[in-house]
User: What shape does this take?
Amino acid sequence: MSKPRDDSVWNRLAPERREQLEEWLFDERRGYADVLELARREWRVEGTISSLGRYYRRRAREREVGEMVSTQAAADAINALPLRSAGLREAAVKLVGQAALRAGLERPDALAELISLTQLLLASEDHELRRQRLQLADRNFHYQAVLAARQDLPQFSACLAALQADASLSPAEVCRRLAAVLFPPTQPKSDLAATMEAADSAWHQQRINLLLEVMFPGLDNRDPAASSPPAGQPEAPTH
Assistant: This one.
């Protein structure tokens, strides 16, 4: 015969009494000794602090899992709504501002609450400024890339006309020669210059891609080195 659980006295309670017990423990945050006295006086139920503690810890874990499931379901329901994140963010900031104003007017002595709300407002403003700076930097990057590509178009067109006159060149070779015209090799650089050039590799590749998209709408403008044949192996003949 299995030994009964130490907290079985609490598990045997009627559902309404278990609900009341959890209200004492979780909602009212009463101590174990206080809850034991209430159970003894109102229900004539005898228990121990250790059994009540085990019941509390087990139910706390179960409630935490249930809350996580409920939170995920609520998050899924909210994500399915046709709401704009920007609008929700603005509304949240206005609500925090309203709470800070109310705290300052009605409870001017509650400095801790007012300071916390003010810090939230300042942090929200700082995050908004950072987000706007990132958006501006992204737009500026693409604008500069397009501008640089347009400035290179005359030289690129002349080079392209010369390369198109040679029908024996493969698309990979055309890309290599165009890249050499746009970014000719230079003298050996210092460590700083080499580092800066490595950091600008994405910029250079984007310039090449933009130019190729303008002049060759149907051409695969990936890195030409990736499509070139291995060293020592002849390229496929063109027809």
